[in-house]
Write a structure and sequence with these properties.
Blueprint lengths: L7 H13 L2 H8 L3 H15 L4 E3 L4 E3 L1 H28 L3 E8 L1 H16 L4 E8 L5 H6 L5 E5 L7 E15 L10 E3 L8 E4 L2 H6 L16 E3 L2 H9 L4 E5 L3 H4 L5 E6 L4 E9 L6 H14 L20
Parallel strand pairs: 3-4, 3-5, 7-11, 8-9, 8-10
Antiparallel strand pairs: 1-2, 5-12, 6-10, 6-11, 6-12
Length: 317
């Protein structure tokens, strides 16, 4: 497609003269001399190949071709203004699309509240959540399937940046009539006496490793391992078994009427991190939401998110 032979400055001069029908007044509006306006019109006429104005010593009127050219000239400048406005919005993080991946509980409970807080001041930013398996989060960032991922602490190489967001203790979730519901805290050793259902690989990664050196009879082995935490919580609510999960899943567990009890001796913590590409530049919108999420999480002291834990340290491991 050939490049236009005229400029926005020439079109602006043309439309201004067409409005006021006088080169001197047009110059005043444009902060230009009448001769400079006349030069711009001459350049535009040369570029278009037809005369734009009929000029006499007393009047300036649009030529027939000039009258036909007014509407397309206005349309071009309008679209340029829209493009400039869009560019300003993008540069100022006021517009764009942000793709963020997270496991189901974070995707369905923590992120929507953070997005709602951000949307109030950035209504043109579209944030799309993709709920994903924990094992897929890092690959989704590395492969540019998403801009940001939020999930449990995992190993990353130099292509992905990892930032610690918050820690949440592993706790016990059980039905209100379960015997352990009467306790304030429960030591790990007592869990061997109860049926435990685990969700996904979380138990293997965060809990069972601390028993790796224990004797067979001292290990806490779940009676079942399900794929989704919602299934484990549902089984706990039905009294089939208790389940172990980070405290922040209370955003879902509380709706099922489950009781949370701290597990001690020792207390095991889940580290939740934010991940983004270290080799590709992020869009302004993604940068803006990333900074918002870290700030928004600061001071969250409910459901196992302690205060002052979100940090933008940019650490990798």
């Amino acid at each position: 497609m050939p490049a236009p032979r005229f400029t926005p400055r020439q079109l602006t001069a043309f439309l201004t003269v067409a409005d006021v029908r006088n080169f001197g007044r047009a110059g005043e509006r444009l902060s230009l001399s009448p001769s400079a306006v006349s030069q711009l019109i001459a350049e535009l006429e040369s570029a278009t190949g037809f005369r734009l104005f009929d000029r006499t010593t007393r009047s300036v009127t649009l030529s027939p071709a000039g009258r036909e050219f007014v509407a397309p000239a206005r349309s071009v400048l309008k679209h340029l203004e829209l493009a400039q406005s869009a560019a300003d919005d993008i540069r100022n993080r006021a517009a764009g699309v942000v793709r963020i991946a997270a496991p189901m509980v974070i995707a369905g409970s923590i992120l929507p509240e953070a997005i709602q807080a951000y949307a109030g001041q950035h209504p043109k930013v579209v944030i799309r959540i993709r709920d994903a398996a924990v094992d897929n989060l890092i690959d989704m960032v590395a492969n540019a399937d998403v801009d940001i991922a939020v999930g449990p602490d995992q190993y990353v190489d130099d292509s992905v940046t990892r930032i610690s967001l918050f820690k949440s203790s592993w706790v016990l979730w059980c039905a209100p009539d379960h015997p352990l519901a009467k306790r304030k805290t429960v030591p790990w050793s007592e869990l061997r006496q109860h049926a435990v259902v685990a969700a996904g690989h979380d138990y293997d990664r965060n809990v069972s490793l601390m028993h790796a050196g224990a004797a067979e009879g001292e290990r806490i082995a779940p009676v079942d391992v399900v794929d989704n935490i919602s299934t484990a919580l549902g089984m706990a609510a039905a009294g089939i078994a208790l389940t172990l999960a980070p405290a922040y899943v209370g955003l879902l567990a509380n709706r099922l009427g489950l009781v949370m009890r701290r597990i001690v001796d020792p207390e095991v913590m889940r580290q939740v991190c934010l991940y983004y590409s270290a080799v590709r530049a992020a869009s302004p919108a993604a940068e803006g939401f990333r900074e918002h999420l870290m700030t928004w999480l600061e001071g969250k002291d409910t459901l196992g998110i302690p205060q002052h834990t979100a940090t933008a340290n940019g650490s990798r491991r």
